[in-house]
Amino acid sequence: MLWVIHCLDAPGTAGLRADQRPAHSARLRAAPVVPVLYGPLVAEDGSTPVGSLILVEAETREQAEEFAFNDPFAVSGVWERIEVQAFAPSLNSPVRLTDAVPRTGAGPDGRP
């Protein structure tokens, strides 16, 4: 099952986010769930991080929540708000997730 993890940063945590980014990235690469898509949410300037969006494959909500709430951004206080919601992609979506999505946590080019 797919789960969307939507996170918003606490005010004034840009430096903490930068400090925790290597640990956050390492967790994505060694995730106990399968990351499908992820990246920062950004301000209208197109580059200032204001949160994160992560789409994972996990058997249960509990697995997705454990992954989200134990991420270095969560534990350190970067993320002020974390929501986990089940996701069912539309068959009419212009971009489709298929069985070709790697099950190793790596992207199509082999990198996370």
Number of strands: 4
Question: Which structural class fits the helix and strand makeup?
Answer: alpha+beta
Determine the CATH superfamily: Dimeric alpha+beta barrel
Oligomeric state of shown chains: single chain
Mass-distribution shape: globular
- Helix share of residues? 25-40%
Give the strand order, joined by hyphens, for the main sheet.
Answer: 2-3-1-4
Distance between the termini: 20 Å
User: What is the CATH topology?
Assistant: Alpha-Beta Plaits
> H/E series, N to C?
EHEEHHE
The assigned CATH architecture is 2-Layer Sandwich
- Relative strand content: 25-35%
Pfam families: YCII (PF03795)
Organism: Streptomyces incarnatus
InterPro entries: Dimeric_a/b-barrel, Sec-metab_biosynth-assoc, YCII
Domain YCII-related: 1-87
Characterize the structure shown.
- It is a single chain.
- The chain is of the alpha+beta class and 112 residues long.
- The chain has one domain: Alpha-Beta Plaits, CATH 3.30.70.
- It is 27% helix and 31% strand.
- It is globular, with a radius of gyration of 14 Å.
- It starts with a strand and ends in a 25-residue tail after the last strand.
